[in-house]
Amino acid sequence: MKNLIVALVGVAFAATSLFAATPALPRKAPELAFNMPGQGQKLLSQYRGKVVALEFIYTTCPHCQAASKLMSKIQNEYGSRGLQVLDVAINPNADLAVADFAKEFQTTFPVGWVTQDQGLAFMGFNMAERFVVPQLILIDRQGIIRYQTPPLGDEKSMEESTIEQRVQELLSDSGARHSASSSRMTKAHHAS
Fold this sequence. Notes:
Elements: H1 2-19, E1 27-28, E2 33-36, E3 40-43, E4 51-57, H2 62-78, E5 83-89, H3 94-104, E6 111-113, H4 116-123, E7 135-139, E8 144-148, H5 160-172, H6 178-191
């Protein structure tokens, strides 16, 4: 009986490890329809041609609030070069909270919402796996996801210098260099 319990615990741990895997990079960004207060639905594809920093948040999360302040700074610095930051809330009642969130934290970019299931599907996470917020996804001008925070987070990936380095790389990247760039980002992501 003891051996059976140990085996079952091992299988459960292995299954959890599989669920917590970051989806492969690079990959095409799926379409995402998100709702904007007073503006209706927007599509992620409307931002094609820009580098998109898409951040999935909970409006009540202190880490997400701090990240939104940082992303406002980055939007102000790189927006004129083709960066578009977007926050998409996935917490319950996000539809009632995003307008106040954007106002309170003085975001310099759009803040919308989707259901948590829609957010998880976009990120490529399993509904049963654990994840933390904020989740940052960087999408190149052609609509390819080049970087994504791992499900359980990574402090280094949310540091200002790391985000700026990756944004600068994508802003200066041309179509001919995409495969080399994504390869470096994927290697850097797996090394951290």
